[in-house]
Amino acid sequence: MTKPRVICTRKWPESVEAELRARFDVTLNEADEAMSADELRLALDEYDAVCPTVTDKVDAAVLANPKRVKMLGQFGVGFNNIDTEAAKAAGLVVTNTPAVLTDATADMALTLLLNVARRTYEGETMLRAGEWTGWRPTQLMGTSPQGKVLGIIGMGRIGKAMAKRCHHALDMEIVFYDAFPVEDPGVPARQLDSIEAVLEAADFVSIHTTGGGDNIHLINAARLERMKPTAILINTARGDIVDEAALTEALKTGGIAGAGLDVFEREPAITAALRTMKNVCVLPHLGSATRETRVAMGMTVVENLTAFFDGREPPNRVV
Ligand code: 8YV
């Protein structure tokens, strides 16, 4: 029996690539260079399954009348790089990799929260530039998270994992917004009935909702104005959830105190303002970047592909 033809758009961890080779007629991306729209279109014509990542824009134009592809096995929990309506219209099944990256992403949100609160990235930059002249009682004073309010936007798996960390490790009070009632937030936490209410109450706001669609610029200028001038915004979800221009303005004018960003509106481009402002810690989309997590994400794609080509329902089908 001929094996299904599968293509990965980027380089994946070696153990996952070995598993893919064993199960499928797979084309890997040794050079790890992003594919162009034309290359993606060609892949949809020549492969049974294409496995994209956040860097592949699988939009309606790319998805117009594909000749061969039956499935898109996204490497990642977020899939706003894929036009799911167009994929559905083309009769494709789309899967993602939830759950396995929950802890890694919450760890990164916590890393950013502490980094911005304690100004560690500023200290490191100063040291690396050879500018440390010695200890002073008032040098790089940050803010203590203990007893402060954490506001979570989007109380799914990652939001709950962040709440758990901040409750247990930092003694923070938790409030959150979610479009749906959340019966069990996992730790003591109050669900508020609007995003505004969370923004007004919080000393730290951490975003854990999906990107794209209605969530584009969910955090806009008007909502940023609701935040305390002492508040810090953390985003490890998707860059398009926050209006970056409005955020930059709020950070420049003291509308809010700081931000920790792992995701950006036009990745990998980052504005000069965000790169240079002292009250912003920027990371290159590292949320799920641990060896263990990336292997688990890859193996989840392998399970989804295997189920699909065995004629079973893939465990993580989103379309
Ligand atoms: C991934 C992520 O590394 O899974 C997600 O949604 O944001 C990241 O952790 C990336 O999206 C891979 O496609």
What does this structure look like?
By secondary structure, this protein is of the alpha/beta class. The protein has 2 domains: 115 residues, Rossmann fold, CATH 3.40.50; 181 residues, 3-Layer(aba) Sandwich (Rossmann fold), CATH 3.40.50.720. It contains 11 helices and 12 strands. The strands form 2 sheets. The protein has a 7-stranded parallel beta sheet, sandwiched between helices. It has a 5-stranded parallel beta sheet with strand order 2-1-3-4-5, with helices on both faces. β1, α1 and β2 form a beta-alpha-beta unit. α1 runs parallel beside α11 and α4 packs across α6. It binds 2-keto-D-gluconic acid.
Main attributes?
Rossmann fold, about 15% strand, binds 2-keto-D-gluconic acid, 2 domains, alpha/beta, about 325 residues, 11 helices, five-stranded parallel β-sheet, about 35% helix, globular, seven-stranded parallel β-sheet
